[in-house]
Amino acid sequence: MSKFSALALSATLALFASCSTFTWRGQASDSGMADPSRGLKDMATLSSEYETEKFFAGIRRRMDGRSNAFSRDLDSITATIDRHLFNYSVDDPYVNFPTEYGPIDNTLRSAVKTVAPLPVTQDLMRR
Questions:
Q1: Which residues contact 35 (CB under 8 A, 6 or more apart)?
Q2: Residue 23, by phi and psi: left (phi above 0), alpha (psi -120 to 50) or beta?
């Protein structure tokens, strides 16, 4: 046995001897299958929790599938109407070019363009 392996063995034994919490608790036959003090649950509780989680996961999966399919169908209908009635395509880069204006700016600009030619506005501007 070399000096290094003897040193490693003695260090390991010293480590185990100095550790006060080194026990075989839970490894013996006196520990029950369900020990609530250590956070262990019995098989019936675990099975019930698993079935509950599985049931609600299935509901969430089916609901997501339905809503995704419904959204896809609505998007397809909207895209069809846009393409055939308004000659608009979402993928057209010349229509959907990036702009520095946001939706509020666009709404306000549209409102000004709509209100400016009205006779009431023209009267107010002349006074």
A1: 26
A2: beta
Q: Is 87 left (phi over 0), alpha (psi -120 to 50) or beta?
A: left
Number of separate helices (H) and strands (E) present in the chain:
4, 0
Place of tokens 């099975």: 47
22 within 8 A of 16, measured Cβ to Cβ: yes
pTM over 0.70: no
Helix, strand, coil % over all residues of the chain, rounded to 5: 65, 0, 35
Q: Minimal CA–CA distance to 25: which of 14, 41, 34, 38?
A: 38
C-alpha to C-alpha distance for 84 and 4, rounded to whole angstroms: 83
The pLDDT tens digits along the chain (127 residues) read 577 787 788 888 777 766 666 565 555 455 556 667 777 888 888 899 999 999 999 888 887 777 778 888 888 888 899 888 888 887 777 776 677 888 888 888 889 888 888 888 888 888 8
